[in-house]
Amino acid sequence: MIIQQLTNGLMLGGVYVMIAVAFTLAIGILNFLNFSIPGIFMIGGMVAWALLRSGLHWIAAFSLALSAGVLVGLLVYLLTYRPSGKSDHEVPLVSSLGFLVLMENLIVIWLGSDQQSFPALISDFNFRIGSIIIGGAQLLSLVLSLAFVLALSLALRLTNMGRQVRAIAESRRTATILGVQVGTVVPKVFVLSALFTALGGILFAISYLQVSSSMGENIGFKGISAMIIGGMGSIWGAVAGGLLIGIVEILSIRFLGADFANISVYGLLLILLIVRPDGLFGLAAVREKL
């Protein structure tokens, strides 16, 4: 039974990984806590559901949902981050929070506030290993999450674009002196972050077959917690934090009850901040970057 719960926790953690990595890209590179990320997560799931309900093929529906998430990410950059780029960090943070509230209310007006059932694209898609049952959709979600994170990590280390991004993460001023076109690279970071976030929303919908206008709020807090637990600025730390939170949440539900799930998760965060403020993979002297 404990192995089954650990398996379920890993499956849930795969969703948190996507959001934690999106937050890591924003704060690790731009030093910007982008509060619109939970809204983009919700956009991914809700737009995919609405398009599937209208009869669109799932490939087209998911592609348009990802495009909608990327569009919102660009709007956040154009309307919040770029105009206040030389202001205090709190200014774009508050503006992005306004974007979150705006997106949630627009979706409520368009699609309503009720929780909706997401259609199962493949029925009875489960695997059984002995007494352990693994949901095929959840497993696919976890595998895709880790595959995209691996591709991102390799791209950041092996491509010219990745080297520019890491240069900006270390020092924007030095990167500019070295010839990095910061004004061109930063929008791409927003696009990449939005893509990860919207994909996370779609994977959550596929895995748990439900969407709502408020689906991003709880997931967003868990994503921030995963980023902090793993070590702010560390992509693989975000992965470890997301998987750990998923396991802790499922084990809490199993042994303590659903009411204790959030207490356990945020209690873990509080204890870790006291014992190891820089997170599991953070560096004490200098923050690890990507």
Gist?
The protein has helices at residues 2-30, 37-53, 58-81, 90-111, 136-158, 160-170, 172-177, 182-208, 215-230, 235-255, 261-275; strands spanning 116-117, 126-129, 132-135, 210-211. It has 290 residues and is mainly alpha-helical. Helix 3 runs antiparallel to helix 4 (90-111).
Topology:
Layout (H helix, E strand, L loop, with lengths): L1 H29 L6 H17 L4 H24 L8 H22 L4 E2 L8 E4 L2 E4 H23 L1 H11 L1 H6 L4 H27 L1 E2 L3 H16 L4 H21 L5 H15 L15
Antiparallel strand pairs: 1-4, 2-3
Helix content: over 70%
What's the total number of strands?
Answer: 4
Strand content: under 5%
Number of helices: 11
Placed side by side, the strands forming the largest sheet appear as 1-4
Unreliable spans: none
> Which class best fits the helix and strand makeup?
mainly alpha
Query: Major sheet, described briefly?
Result: 2 strands, antiparallel
Strand/helix succession = HHHHEEEHHHHEHHH
Structure characterization notes:
The protein has 11 helices and 4 strands; from the N terminus they run ααααβββααααβααα. The chain is mainly α. A two-stranded antiparallel ribbon has the order 1-4. Strands 2-3 form a two-stranded antiparallel ribbon. The radius of gyration is 19 Å and the shape is globular. Strand 2 (126-129) and strand 3 form a beta hairpin. The protein has helices at residues 2-30, 37-53, 58-81, 90-111, 136-158, 160-170, 172-177, 182-208, 215-230, 235-255, 261-275, and strands spanning 116-117, 126-129, 132-135, 210-211.
